[in-house]
Fold this sequence. Notes:
Layout: H1 3-19, E1 29-40, H2 62-76, E2 83-90, E3 92-93, H3 100-112, E4 116-118, E5 124-125, E6 135-142, E7 146-154, H4 163-166, E8 168-174, E9 180-187, H5 196-214, E10 222-227, H6 235-242, E11 246-247, H7 248-252, E12 259-260, E13 264-265, E14 268-272, H8 274-277, E15 280-285, E16 307-312, E17 321-325, E18 334-338, E19 345-347, E20 356-357, E21 359-363, E22 366-367, E23 370-373, E24 380-386, E25 389-394, E26 399-401, E27 404-405, E28 410-411, E29 415-418, E30 426-431, E31 434-439, E32 445-451, E33 454-460, E34 473-477, E35 497-501, E36 504-508, E37 514-515, E38 521-522
Parallel strand pairs: 1-2, 3-5, 9-10
Antiparallel strand pairs: 1-16, 2-6, 4-6, 7-8, 8-9, 10-14, 11-14, 12-13, 15-16, 17-23, 17-34, 18-24, 18-34, 19-21, 20-29, 21-33, 22-23, 24-25, 26-29, 27-28, 30-31, 32-33, 35-36, 36-37, 37-38
Amino acid sequence: MNIPNFHNRLLLSLMALVFAGNVAIAGDVITICGQNLQNFFYSLDRERTQGNYVPISNYNTEAGRTAKANSIVNTLAPYNADIYAFNEVEAKVNGAEQEALDILAAKMSSKTGRQYKVVYDGLTYDPSTDLTGTIKSGFIYRADKVEPVGENTSTAVGYTEIYPYMMRMQTFRSLASGEQFTLSMNHFKASTSGNMEGDMLKREQNSIALLKGLDQASDPDVLVLGDLNSEMGEQCLKNLVDAGYEEQILKRDEYAYSYWYSYGELIDHVFANSTMAAQVTDARMLNIANPHSTGNKYNAYSDHDPYLVTLNLETQPAVEYNYSKATTFTAGIPYLIVAPVKGLNVPEPVDFSKDYSYQYAITVNEKDNIIEMDNAKYTVIFEEAGDGNYYIKDYYGRYYYNYYYASSSSYGHNTNAGTKSKAQVYSVTKQNDAFKIRNTTSNYYLIGMTYNNQAEFAWYNYTTTNSSQHYPWLYQYNDPTTDITNVNERTQPVIIRKIIENGIMYILTPDGRRYTLQGVELR
């Protein structure tokens, strides 16, 4: 047990708290503070039981609502954030003059002397038909520093339930420089149903929907925040990593945690694509700001800690997506699938509104065996499946498979794309310049061809091809400094935690044992 490390980490955390908002950084600096507020409601007629205890968030009076709002603002205002992004705030009640975000914006303005405004999203619910109400993710912003650009939209593309409210996206512009970035605040399915695998599947669906939604971002610099209810290594976060998003908190602190239950877990995350990551100068948890993590959960306004992200928008890296013709095959890296059908063609992803489609193609140009693309959305990753075979995953986290039609006792020729539970296994065999990509379940090969005089890619059991049919070539992504790449997924070690109760610090291990700072077990 490395006891001195706890002293060092505590001192650093205290210093970070003292100096937050007071350090001058050259450039166009924007700060963002995020947190799950554990159900902050505007309406006063809802039952609020929360776990096995009754924190101040369990209110159904105006005084209780005010107490929680004051706790939130008093905790977060010292960080002087330009944007506050929240999970679990109540959507506007039909007929109400205000909503939960209006209260927070007004109190934050009064506390700081600066004007904070709400990003309005048009999300409402009718209490006569929804007795439990609807919670959402949302934003307030400092009006003299930034302004919202365009509409606040859902990133839950193709996946409905409650997630259009919980997964939101907004582009912001810095008033100082005019630089823009897209901010997405999200809430993935919690492990609360008693069905662990089912909840993980829903989080995987959340991540696929999110990547589809982010494809609609009006600015290509994308920052993803939120209570994603999962630690690194779970499929939902692996999908983000494989799409070129890097976890920013763990990049700076491998021991970070955001949720304190029996021990700390990092289930609230900050992800950035490469152009955004180049503009992130800091990302950290604010564990000492929230009573829940410092030992007194009964006075906490939330069971999640806040986090702070600092951007310098003057850092604007050039974006290039270059792919070189592959002579060998390696799993785990991005590829373009290419065939010389009508010129040189690359298949489009499966349509967002479906889980299947023929993959019609776009035309690309090659120079010196290099294809340059203006985005990374056409790539796939071949993921190890064992026995020398592979899964195929598209940019949006969807896995390929062929659907079996019992009525005709045959497989479809279109490409199906869904969660990993539906994935089928593929072999990849080099043949001359091309690669034979075979579905080992259907025994179909991916073929580039024309249909109705249009270039497309489809699956057939052709062991040989004619002049109008082509086994594809593979072009390998060859610039590790740009967007979709082998991003470090980062692991989260199981560690001991520092806890403060009644002004006394002690150490808590994952098995629930408590120790003094001198290493003496408390019984």
